[in-house]
Structure formats: structure tokens, C-alpha cells
Amino acid sequence: MPSSVIVGAQWGDEGKGKVIDIFAAKADYIVRYQGGNNAGHTVVIGDDSFILHLIPSGILHKKKICVIGNGVVIDPRALLEEIEMLKGRGIKVDGRLFISEEAHVILPYHKLLDELKEQKKKKIGTTKKGIGPCYADKVARSGIRIIDLLEEDTLRDKLRANLEEKNSVLAKTYGADGFEFISVYNEYLDYGRKIKKYICNTKRLLNDAIDAKKRVLFEGAQGTLLDVDYGTYPFVTSSNSSAGGASTGTGVGPNKIDKVIGVVKAYTTRVGEGPFPTEFDDLLMDKIRQKGKEFGATTGRPRRCGWFDSVVVRHSVMVNGLDELVVTKLDVLDELDTIKICTGYRFGDKVYDDFPSSIKVLTGCRPVYEELPGWLKDTSGITDYSRLPVNAKKYLKRMQYLLNTKIVLISVGSKRSQTFSKGV
Ligand code: GDP
Ligand code: IMO
Ligand code: MG
After folding, report:
1. Which of 192, 208, 282, 408 would suit a FRET pair with 324, their CA atoms being 20 to 30 Å apart?
2. Which residue's alpha carbon is nearest to atom 8 within ligand 1?
3. Which of 203, 262, 286 is nearest to 407 (CA)?
4. Where do the DSSP E strands lie in 348-418?
5. Phi/psi at 368 (nearest 5 deg)?
6. Mean pLDDT over residues 210-227, rounded?
7. Degrees (nearest 5) of the Cα angle 279, 280, 285?
């Protein structure tokens, strides 16, 4: 594994944190390339549970180098809080964390605009962390970058211009109070002073590492169906969470990435608004939500749950170029008599087996299911593929067949020990 990308192949929360933690043991560098503190990656080590929002999950492994690439948007206050949380729990951060000079900065007006937009009837269901407005400024070429926090005059000029525009929008469109220049300026200069020691040219750092044959693991956040291009637009996040983002979000050429691994839940979940063809009815929703503890790691919101959707994951296999799959949360299906897998969508007289782009089709379609018998056995203590119940093996084999991609690892609980490899 010289360099690999790990991406969520559904709508996020597939268990990437756990999987990154396992793969990180064999990596030298772990790198976030997109998103921001909208992510919530859970890693359980013994009796300790950590939720990482911005810092790569590899930070929990001593001596690994962690990088926040240029494609990430950074809320400096959230970053400093996370650093403090880790230090408070005995994790060394200084000398191991490096932040791109070119990453964009989330400012207070981004968060407020995110919140205000979400009060509209037609909302996205965002995490309200300011992610969308920050990426919008990046693309509009008015964003403030991490390097700007270190240059008093650059920050002053950019912030003044931005505040003039944002305060006007806040007042005129939303009737909201704006922000005072001097307090935001001083606050962000102070953040710059505090995070200066972590800031560097991460493109150089990573390319030199790859040239020196170091192993680099790219940690995707969100999931492919939340990707701004390949997801259920507009019900998506504002970055390229798919594998391509690993290159643009770090400055590492695509030819230097050797492998792309997709993480899939054995069923499907999504948080926030947007189409979800295989969503459960209320009864099953409640059962799986409780058993799978499906509540957001960032916002605490209940996650919507549904059957495994092979149309969704086939789409992910294609747009990410997935080489291998890791299946998580198989144990959550232990108590079901029968299990459904969606193999296509029916809309009018058409059957789609390619993921449709139209939100109208996705909202109105009826999933085509096949049914498999459940295994009705507790799998959470299994540590060897050969000991899985026959019907659990059949389920995984069917999944693998429909996705035409090799399953290499299976997870049956949140702990490191509840993971085993397989040759289905
Ligand atoms: P991420 O955003 O993809 O890193 O996933 P989250 O951390 O938001 O959500 C995954 C949740 O499932 C976390 O609470 C994990 O501890 C938990 N988890 C991961 N793998 C398994 C598994 O195989 N079985 C069960 N029951 N829980 C798991
Ligand atoms: P991890 O990395 C699940 C969802 C939000 C909303 C949409 C847009 O833990 O898998 P945003 O705040 O990004 O503008 O919200 O994206 N979302 C996630 N859903 N897991 C995540 O991250 C998510 N990050 C954003 O719920 O629907
Ligand atoms: Mg999460």
C-alpha cells in the first residue's frame, strides 16, 4: 500500500474512522483532503472512544504524521479545540500535524449564513458548520486562506472587503446583524499565531514523502453520494469527497495514488434532506437505528436508515475507481429474518440500474429488491470469516457479485478486534 485513498461509498458515516484507524497502522502519513469539521469519524480503542472532525484519524497512532491538505476548509476555533481535546487525552500533536497554507478558512459569517439559509423551507439539512459558504467564497475567489492569517495586511484587506459584502447580505437578505471588523480581525490574527507552528507547504511534504517511498493514506470525509459532482445534488456537501478529491485536495498527482478502497455499510444511512430510495418504513427504521446507534457523530441528529442499495454503490465503484471494499456494521443486521438488497430503480416504465442524475427520478422511483434469508445469529464476536453464518456469507457474496468488486475486510463491531479479512 504505497499510497491509498479510503472513501465512503454511500452517504457518509460508513465507518471510515474505524477503517482508517486499522489501515493507519501500516501507513506513515494520514491525510485529509476535503470537507471540514462537518465530518465526524469515530475511532474506538479499547474502552476509549474518539470522534475526530478535522484532524486525520491517524493522529491516534503514535509517530504517524497527519496532514490537513489544501482541499479542506478549516474553522480555526474548531481545530484548536480538537488539538486541545487530543492533548488533554494524552495524544501528542505538535510535530505530527501539518496544515496546508492553501486551505481555506471558515469565518463567523460563513457559519451564520449556513444557519440562516437552513431556516428556509427548502433546506439541505447541513451541519451548519459554514462549509458551503466557505467553499462558495473559495470558488468565487474571495476566500481567506490559512497563509493569510499570517500576513496582517493581507488579512486586513481581504477581511474588510468580505465583511462589507457579507454584512450587506446579512442585513438586506436576512435582516441579521453583521460582524464588526476589528473583533473578527483580532480573533483570526490570534488563531494565526496559535496555529503557525502547524502551517507548511504540505504539497512538498507529501510529494517528498512519496518520493522517499513513505506510505500515504488519504482519509476521505463524507461519502460519494454527498460529492458535489457525483452526489444527489443539491442535497450534497460542497466538496469532492470522491477519490479524485484526494489529488486536487493535496497536490499529489493521480499517478502517485496506487489504490482506492471504498467503505460500505452493510445497509444504508443518510443524515439530512434528499432522496433515499431504499429508506425503511418507521418500524424497521427504529429497530436498525437503535441497534446500529445511528445518530450523527457531529450533530447528534438521528440518521435515516434503509436497505443496502447496490445501485448507489455500483455508482461509487465507477466514479471512485474502487479497487476493494470494506463492509462495516454487518452485525447490525443480525436479528433480521429476511434482508433486502436493491438492484435497480423502477420509474414509470423504465428500470434504472445506473444511478440516475435526476432528483425527480430518485425521489419518485420504486426500488427493485431481491430478498435473502437472514442469519439470526450474533456475529459481533466473530473474528474469522470462516465462522460467519452461512447466510451472512451468502449476503456478502451477493453484494460482491452485484458490485463486481472484491470485499477485503469485514467489520462486526466498533472495536479494532471486531474486524477480519476475507476471501469471499
Ligand atoms: P465515519 O464518519 O464514516 O467515520 O463513521 P461514524 O464514526 O460517523 O459512524 C460509524 C459508527 O459506527 C461509529 O459509531 C462507529 O464506532 C460504529 N461502527 C463502525 N464499524 C462498526 C461495526 O462494524 N459494527 C457496529 N455495530 N458499529 C460500527
Ligand atoms: P462523515 O465524514 C454524513 C451531510 C449533511 C447534509 C449535507 C451537507 O462523518 O461521513 P454540510 O454541512 O456538509 O454542508 O452538509 O452533507 N454531511 C454528512 N453526512 N456524514 C458526514 O461526514 C457528513 N458531512 C456532511 O448532513 O446532508
Ligand atoms: Mg461520521
Report:
1. 208
2. 13
3. 262
4. 350-352, 366-373, 406-411
5. -95, 125
6. 98
7. 120
- Reported as type and span, the H/E element at residue 133 is helix 131-139
Rg (CA), the chain: 22
- Contact yes or no for 43/50 (Cβ under 8 A): yes
Contact 379, 331 (CB under 8 A): yes
Report the mean per-residue pLDDT for the chain.
Answer: 97
- Which of the 8 DSSP states describes residue 272? S
* Complete domains list, the chain, with CATH: 3-100+199-260 (3.40.440.10), 104-194 (1.10.300.10), 264-421 (3.90.170.10)
For residue 100, give the C-alpha cell: 496546508
| Residue to mutate (ligand 2; options 127, 224, 269, 294; most atoms within 8 A of CB) | 127
Say if residue 424's pLDDT is above 70: no
Kindly report the pTM of this predicted structure: 0.97
Asked whether residue 343 carries a pLDDT value surpassing 80, the answer given is yes
In the predicted model, is pLDDT for residue 163 greater than 60?
yes
**Which residues' Cβ are closer than 6 Å to ligand 1?**
8, 12-18, 40-42, 44, 292-293, 297, 328-329, 331-332, 411-414
- Among all ligands shown, which has an atom nearest to the Cα of 17? 1
pLDDT of res. 113: 98
| Best residue among 331, 411, 414 to mutate for probing ligand 1, ranked by most atoms within 8 Å of CB | 414
Q: Which ligand is nearest to the CA of 57?
A: 1
Q: Is the CB of 272 under 6 A from ligand 2?
A: yes
**Residues 394-419 pLDDT 10s:** 999 999 999 999 999 999 999 999 99
Ligand 1: atom nearest CA of 418 is 23
Amino acid at 319: V
Instruction: Give catalytic residue positions.
Output: 13, 41
Across-strand partners of 218? 5, 31
Q: CA 137 to CA 148: how far, in whole Å? A: 14
